[in-house]
Amino acid sequence: MIPQIKRIHHVAYRCRDAKETVAWYERVMGMRYTTAFAEDKVPSTGEDDPYMHVFLDCGGGNVLAFFELPNQPEMGKDPNTPAWVQHLAFEVEDEAALQAAKAHLEAEGIEVLGPTYHGIFRSIYFFDPNGHRLELACNIGTAEQYAELADLAPVMLEEWSQTKRAPRHAEWLHKDPAIA
């Protein structure tokens, strides 16, 4: 039977320091630290590998988790994947909230890129203390735009699959009306 997914239970990433990571996500992102698991052996594999696993409430039933693994080699990144690709995106209410978040992040000394226009949302980008890229986004699209994109999605994927070139069916996504 195909699983009937309700929602994402949690998303887990590695961190360098669990205490620093929790403090940063509470102070900078306004998340609430809820739970910690710590074991000397990995329950699923039985491996002897002590860890601290911390969980943060992101709101709306969403949970972000981190593992600190003191006995493993230092964290690394895939050298063949650009830094902009792998990221976590969080939604904020509107453009005013996005601008306020940008001001808050910059006041914390964090370098912020954006806002960037994506047709149906605007977003800002920055990095957490572990080097994970984060995005804050606010939706700005209309019902008609979302419907058009849903209709175009299979056509665009098929074209991409055949050509490996960006399909131009939704070119309007990349033309910010504020920069006319």
From TrEMBL:
Presence of the UniProt keyword Acyltransferase in the record: no
InterPro entries: Glyas_Bleomycin-R_OHBP_Dase, Glyas_Fos-R_dOase_dom, GlyoxalaseI/FosfomycinResist, VOC_core, Xdiol_ring_cleave_dOase_1/2
Sorted UniProt keywords: Aromatic hydrocarbons catabolism, Dioxygenase, Iron, Metal-binding, Oxidoreductase
All residue ranges annotated as the VOC domain in the record: 7-139
Cleavable signal peptide: none
Pfam families: Glyoxalase
Cofactors that this protein relies on: Fe(2+)
PROSITE patterns hit by this protein: EXTRADIOL_DIOXYGENAS, VOC
Protein family: Belongs to the extradiol ring-cleavage dioxygenase family.
PANTHER family named among the record's database cross-references: BLL2330 PROTEIN, GLYOXALASE FAMILY PROTEIN
Record protein name field: VOC family protein
Organism of this sequence: Novosphingobium jiangmenense
